[in-house]
């Protein structure tokens, strides 16, 4: 049997990212791993890189946030959605307009568009909107209603 256990997201400030998801999405911290120096090549990073991580539970789904310290790290934020390595978290919410309004008031969050509802095609009843986190990560807010 195969199942998805978690998804990971690199962040520039682990503490701030954990606080963001705990405060605004009700995430629960399952565990943290303080800074580890060495062994990063196991994760596809240079051997001299260091990392720390936090595993969160967001509504029953696990998200691993990883902060890196590496002399080869490229400044400028995460890959854009249209670039290789670009990714997003899709979070189902009970009240999408209310969550969007709540996040819109958070410093550094950018609302990338108003909610769109699909009435036909492969996702009838889906309403979604995207926001950029304070560090540039992409989050899709979604709700599966009826068309």
UniProtKB/TrEMBL annotation:
PROSITE patterns: VOC. Residues 3-144 form the VOC domain. SUPFAM superfamilies: Glyoxalase/Bleomycin resistance protein/Dihydroxybiphenyl dioxygenase. It comes from the Bacteria. Transmembrane segments: none annotated. InterPro entries: Glyas_Bleomycin-R_OHBP_Dase, VOC_core. Pfam families: Glyoxalase_4. This is VOC family protein.
């Amino acid at each position: 049997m195969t199942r998805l256990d978690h998804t990971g997201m690199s962040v520039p400030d682990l503490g701030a990212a954990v606080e963001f998801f705990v405060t605004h999405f009700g995430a629960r911290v399952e565990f943290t791993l303080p800074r580890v120096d060495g062994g990063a090549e196991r994760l596809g990073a240079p051997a001299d890189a260091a990392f720390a991580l936090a595993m969160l539970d967001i509504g029953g789904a696990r998200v691993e946030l990883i902060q890196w310290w590496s002399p080869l790290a490229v400044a400028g934020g995460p890959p854009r959605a249209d670039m290789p390595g670009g990714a997003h978290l899709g979070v189902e919410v009970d009240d999408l307009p209310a969550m969007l309004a709540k996040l819109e008031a958070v410093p550094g969050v950018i609302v990338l568009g108003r909610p769109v509802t699909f009435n036909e095609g492969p996702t009838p009843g889906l309403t979604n909107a995207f926001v950029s986190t304070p560090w540039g990560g992409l989050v899709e807010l979604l709700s599966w209603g009826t068309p």
